[in-house]
Every structure is written in C-alpha cells, then in structure tokens.
Amino acid sequence: MSAVDMFWAAPPISRTLAASACFLSIGVYAGMLPGYYVIWHTPYILQFPPQLWRLVTSFLITGKDLSILFDTYFLYTYGSKLEISSPRFSQPGDFMTYVLFVCLTILGLNIFITGGMIFTSCLVLAFAYTSTQDDRGMKANFFIVTIPAQWIPYAMLLMTLVTNGPSAAKVQATGLIAAHLHDFLTRLWPEFGGGFNLVPTLTFIRNAFAKPHATVEQKPYGTAFTQPQRAGSGSNNVLPESWKSRGSGHRLGGN
User: Fold this and answer.
1) Global pTM?
2) For 86-104, what is the mean pLDDT?
3) I need a surface site. Which of 8, 20, 140, 249 has the fewest CB within 10 A?
4) Are 51 and 120 in contact (CB under 8 A)?
C-alpha cells in the first residue's frame, strides 16, 4: 500500500486535522506564510469583511521545531482512536459534533478568560483527555514513563507548564475543561444525573457522515440488492459516458 493509499484509508477527520496542522505549521515557521494572518485575533473577526479562516487556522498551528512532529502525532493518534474505536462516538457524525463543541468551548474560554491566540495544544489535550477516559484502569506510556492512562492529559499539561511556562499551560488547560464539559453533558449528566444528552448530533451532520448502504427490494423471483451509486453516477445507462456522444452507428455489413 502506497503512502497516498494509507492516507486515504485513515479516519477522515483525524487525517485532515493532522495533515492540515503539519503543513500549515511548516509554512508558518518556514516563513512562507505570516503567522499573524492565521492566529486568533478577535478584532479581525468582528471587522467587515470578517477573516473567518481564523476560526479554523488558530487550531492548526503547532509548536516550533520538534513540536511540529509531536503535536501532529498526538493530534492524529488520539483523534483517530476516538473517531474509529471510542464507544462514545458510535453513530455517524458524533465525533464531528464533539470536535465542534470542544473547539467552540476552547475558543470561548480563550476569548473571555485567557486571551490565547493559538489553540492546537488545547485540542490535542482535549483529545487526550477524552481518549484516556475510555482506558481507565489501564497503563500507558508517556515518552519513557509508564503511568495510569487517565493521567496522560495531566502529564502533558505539566510538561507544558515546565517547558513553556504558566501562560501556555493556562491556555492549554482550556482543552481539558472543554473535554470534561463535553463528558459531563453527554455522559455523566445522563447516566448519574437523570438528565439527557445535552450535546446531540444534529440530523444534517449525521446525514453528512452516514455511509450509503445497499437497498433491498423483494422481486417475484427473489430478493434484489441494489448497491449504492457513486456521486455523479445517477444515470441508469449501462454504457460508458464517452459512448453517449457517438453517432447512431451502422449495421455491420450495411451501406
């Protein structure tokens, strides 16, 4: 399997986030793209026309140097685990709803409390927190240290505090708060508080991520299965598209 095939076989949301973060960060730190145009800055959202791309790009800028590799790796590793194997996100669109909720919460906390402008580390920590909640009672490796799995996000936060200072740790902690809030609203409150899921997946999101499936139709001679068609293949004509532009043709042996 080629690298391209491996990329397209990876979970779609996680691979898109990781690849975008990697290439955008390389572009910024290599000087090909001014970082000022992709970080969060509220006045540029409120002006007209608003620079709406900052809503996305502020979550896709990793740290410098080796942090480009580590942040991209953790973003993909924890994200893909949640996307494909977490029981929390068993229905189509559930993981996308989680990502949107966490990002909006992180954004709000940083606008009104911390004043942060880059949120990739927050998103990584949110993914790590939610992922490790499914592994309670298990051990996990954090670099060269083996610790209980649920301690991983706190170890990541401690490392940020030691290496980058309290300001960076304060910004990153908003990811922990966002992930815990999602856990409370979707799991703890319904299970232990007698409530219901307060962050449901909207119908249009569920439909967007739903996989097409074969239809079953009863025929006089038995059961017929119709495979889902690819986009753009709505025609019932069995001939290739290129044949449709040909002329009427002639009978073999005719004039």
Assistant:
1) 0.81
2) 94
3) 249
4) no
DSSP the chain: --HHHHHHHS-HHHHHHHHHHHHHHHHHHTTSS-GGGTS--HHHHHSSS--TTHHHHTTS---STHHHHHHHHHHHHHHHHHHHH-GGG-STTHHHHHHHHHHHHHHHHIIIII--S--HHHHHHHHHHHHHHTTTT-EEEETTEEEEGGGHHHHHHHHHHHHH-HHHHHHHHHHHHHHHHHHIIIIIHHHHSS---SSPPPHHHHHHHPPP--EEEEETTEEEEEPPPPTT------S-GGGGGS-----TT--
- How many whole angstroms separate alpha carbon 82 and alpha carbon 212? 22
Supply 32's token pair. 């090909």
187 within 8 A of 88, measured Cβ to Cβ: yes
Check if the beta carbon of residue 134 is closer than 8 Å to that of residue 88: yes
Amino acid type, 111: I
- Cβ(157)–Cβ(176) below 8 Å: yes
Query: Tens digit of pLDDT for each residue in 186-242?
Result: 999 998 888 899 999 999 999 999 876 555 566 555 555 555 554 444 444 444 444
| CA–CA distance, 129 with 251 (Å, rounded to integer) | 71
Q: DSSP string of 56-80?
A: HHTTS---STHHHHHHHHHHHHHHH
232: left (phi over 0), alpha (psi -120 to 50) or beta: left
Note the pLDDT tens digit of each residue in 46-66. 999 999 999 999 999 999 989
Residue with tokens 């590799």: 69
